[in-house]
Structure formats: structure tokens, C-alpha cells
């Protein structure tokens, strides 16, 4: 499992050369989700997203290879954009909310 919204992990902190106290804090911040993942025999990783074409290309490859699968909650037609925004703001979405252009 890869998350961009869950807690950062100690591995992420180490790879990012973050200060020792941040590395220490990530152990506690991510302990619950890492424990749940381990029980389900799943690896949990945190990915920090940035506007980077190279990173987006790599993520695209992972999606196309079905190594990561985006969770889509609802698809709204463009005409219902306001409804889509209200749905996201309600906090009920359990995945990505997509606005279909065509």
C-alpha cells in the first residue's frame, strides 16, 4: 500500500534526510497504520507528492502495470462539478472523486 495522505514512515524520514526528532516522531505517527498493514501481510509506504514530471511518469508506469490501483469513489459529469465539490467537502468520499470532462 502506498499513501500520499497517511502518516510518513521512518523509512521516508531517513530517505529524506530529515532531522533526528522528525525521524523519531514518524515511528509514532505511523505505528498504527504499519501495524495494521503488517497484520494484513501488506507493506505500507509513504510517498511525498511534488509537481515533478519524472515522478508522475513513474507513478503512471506503476498504475499501468497494476502495481498500484487508485480507488475511485464516484465519477461526476462535468455539469455536476458543484455536486462533486460538495461531496468531497462532506468528508464521505472513500477514494478519489473524478469529474468526467466528456
Model description:
The chain is an alpha/beta fold. Strand 3 (72-77), helix 5 (81-90) and strand 4 form a beta-alpha-beta unit. The two termini are 31 Å apart. It contains 5 helices and 4 strands; from the N terminus they run E-H-H-H-E-H-E-H-E. The strands form 2 sheets. The chain has a two-stranded parallel ribbon with strand order 1-2. Helix content is 46%, strand content 15%.
Q: Determine the structural class based on helices, strands and strand pairing.
A: alpha/beta
Low-confidence stretches: none
Helix content: 40-55%
Approximately how much beta-strand content do the residues carry? 5-15%
Please count the beta strands (DSSP E, at least 2 residues each). 4
Q: Largest beta sheet: what is the strand line-up?
A: 1-2
Distance between the termini: 31 Å
How many helical stretches?
A: 5
> How confident overall, as mean pLDDT?
89
Largest sheet: 2 strands, parallel
What is the alpha-carbon Rg in Å? 17 Å
User: Which H/E pattern describes the elements?
Assistant: EHHHEHEHE
Q: What's the shape?
A: globular
